[in-house]
Amino acid sequence: MKLLYSIYKEYKVLTRDRSGLAITFIMPTVLILIITLIQDTTFRSVNEASVPLLIVDRDHDSLSNVLEISLIKSKFFVITKKQLSDEETKKEIATGHFFIGIIIPENTSKKLREKSSARISKLLGSFSGDTSAVAEPLDTSKLKVQLYFDPITKKSFKTTISNSIERIISQIEMQSMVSSLNEKMKESFPLATPSKLELTPIVSLTEEYASYNNSTIIPNSVQHNVPAWTLFAMFFICIPLAGNIIRERDDGSAFRLLTMPGSYMIVILGKMLTYVIVSLIQFALMLCVGVFILPLLGLQELNIGNNLPMLFLVAFSSGLAATGFGLLVGTIATSHDQASLFGAVFVIILAAIGGIWVPTFVMPEVMKKIAVISPLNWGLEAFYGIFLRNFGFKEIFPEVAKLLLFFAASLGGSFLYQKYKRLK
Amino acid sequence: MSILVDIQHVSKKYKDAPRAAVNDLTFSIDKGNVFGLLGPNGAGKTTFISMLCGLFPTSSGEIYINGKTHKTHSKECKQVIGVVPQEIALYPKLTAWENLMFLGHMYGLSGTSLKENVKDNLRILGLEENMHQKIVSYSGGMKRRVNLIAGLLHNPQLLILDEPTVGVDVQSKQAIIEHLKKLNRENGMTILYTSHHLEEAEDFCSHIAIIDDGKLITQGATKQLIADNNCKSIEEVYLKITGVKFRDK
Known about the structure:
The structure holds two protein chains of two kinds. Chain A is mainly alpha-helical. Chain A is 68% helix and 5% strand. Chain A has a four-stranded mixed β-sheet, with helices on both faces. In chain A, helix 12 (308-332) packs across helix 13 (336-353). Chain B is an alpha/beta fold. Chain B is built from nine helices and nine strands. Chain B has a six-stranded mixed β-sheet, with helices on both faces. In chain B, strands 2-1-4 form a three-stranded antiparallel β-sheet. The longest helix of chain B is centred in the last third of the chain and has 18 residues, at 170-187. Chain B is globular and about 45 Å long. The A-B interface holds A 1-2, 5-6, 8-9, 12-13, 16-17, 250-253, 255-263, 266-267, 422-424 and B 14-15, 50, 53-57, 74-75, 78-79, 81, 83, 85-91, 93-94, 98, 101-103, 105-108, 110, 134, 150-151.
């Protein structure tokens, strides 16, 4: 009964604290919306998204047409065609209007056909004993297609794009060679009706994200930001919780409660349970934002996986860890200002190193190693496991255990500190 | 009269402090007494009250409440005590009713008896009409009266009052003192009272102890103390014993 009434009291105090409610519920919602929108383009540029590409077509023939069609089919690019000089093209790319510029010089297709034809003639001449064809020197000069890249392009991304375009051009070259071969064969066998040579790739790569239990969810900004900022908000609860403890200490309520038989422990327990419930409500609310609100803004819908009990377990463990930390801050800090400053700075540092702002998979190796000391990283990794890899209890247990140990250590730390102060 | 609180050679020295905050205090409080504990700032009153309430242990000596100590019978000792701190130890965003119901539950009370108890106390101290207003909207005097009720809910044998009338108007002060006198007279409630209002202490307390520098300087029945020191009031006795030097410089 004492515990229930203590929770009821905390609920009343909390619901009448507007600034506390704003920090608890509005701040994470706003953060999720803003950061997800901001980071969405970055995540897409890494994953699948549309790279703005400028084609300056001076060829107006088969090569430029096939190249354009292939680029469109790749779904990597948003293509714009313009007739510009080399300098103007460079300027367009350098000023960031396009990520890549391609200049296809005049008569490239025509020259490609001529070169293909010459190579095929030389080859067939060696079979038919046409010594003049074999003796004729081959023009080995290369046709040039100019690529311009935005200077901010990362080397790895540039290589990927170059390779893609080179592959498309190789296919066009191959097609040209086969066409030349066809024509020469027709000259040698005018009555034959050859079937068309199949040029579709013989070997294809099967690509898939490594996943567990047949889950094939691809990480995106929504899947990162919703759990990340929810965890941030859960740990930010330490500020109102610590403030609540300090206020009780300053206004004499703690003194009064300590004089009551066994009541202070119950009040602290009630406080902690209330804040754990609040953190679970926060979590549920942020999931709703991910599932229902973000798609309205043109972002992907949050896929929460299919293991709700594990999701609850991770959220509950994270809530306990955050509450324990709040209790420790409230016990050690001597003033509300000190608790706010210390709590906020500490949570921001833990968030930064834990991969909340910048995901750990894009962090340097050193930071990846440091990230594992942050409780926010433990929670985030567990959520990644559930959202992306469909992990079960066995797989998330290490992260959950770390969160629970952090809670126990914070709790133990605050009781020991309090005892030390009493005996001082 | 039987002894409710027995203080035996109690001392308290904080770690790193140059001297003891409480130094070999020995006195007793009989049941039904209104006992005034007076002394300048820094005399050791708050430290003594904290030890009496079981907030921290003594460095040496024993405090007996109804013959029991906090060390061995903490729950029983705390059940005997009601505390009214100097601060308004209430939740400002809760109403008076909500505050008192919460604190009542923390004392282990519940149900209709608690509700009746809260209502009666609020009525007696003139707060019935405002009981569903938040504490933050109350005047200083109203807050003090609710603060007092919070210490009385479980009908304690020993009520500890730390400056219960500081910063309140004459009407509220009158209401508080009259209610306390009535509780003492009709329920036999023992009261330990600390204050800097020496005139109020003289009027209210049957017995007075004066401490300074952590030591007990004098104690006795109020009228007897005045007579023994050839003074006209407790204020004169106080100044005669403690001097005029500042203590909290």
